[in-house]
Amino acid sequence: MVFSSRLISARRFATSAIRRDGGPQMPGDNLPFDINNRYKLTVYFILFFGSGLVTPFLAVRHQLLKK
Fold first, then answer.
1. Tens digits of per-residue pLDDT, 2-56?
2. Are 41 and 33 in contact (CB under 8 A)?
3. 60 in the Ramachandran plot: left (φ > 0), alpha (ψ -120 to 50) or beta?
4. Which residues cross the membrane (predicted)?
5. What secondary structure does DSSP assign to 13-67, as a single string?
6. Which three-class secondary structure state does DSSP give residue 3?
7. How far is it, in rounded angstroms, from Cα 29 to Cα 32?
8. Taking a C-beta distance cutoff of 8 angstroms, is the pair 41, 35 a contact?
């Protein structure tokens, strides 16, 4: 009896998970930014990674110019 109730609950979970899926999605639909415009994406990448690379240099410059 316990086994059959586990099987039924597992079946309900599986069908509800399939139902919530929402159908087929294109690659990149779950990203927080648009990947269809390559120039906008390039600018975003340069700004994002560039800000991380330039921060230590700006901090050193600030410390050297401080009196």
1. 566 666 666 666 666 556 666 677 888 888 888 899 999 999 999 999 999 999 9
2. yes
3. alpha
4. 41-60
5. HHHHHHHHT-S---TTTTSSS--S-HHHHHHHHHHHHHHHHHHHHHHHHHHHH--
6. helix
7. 8
8. yes
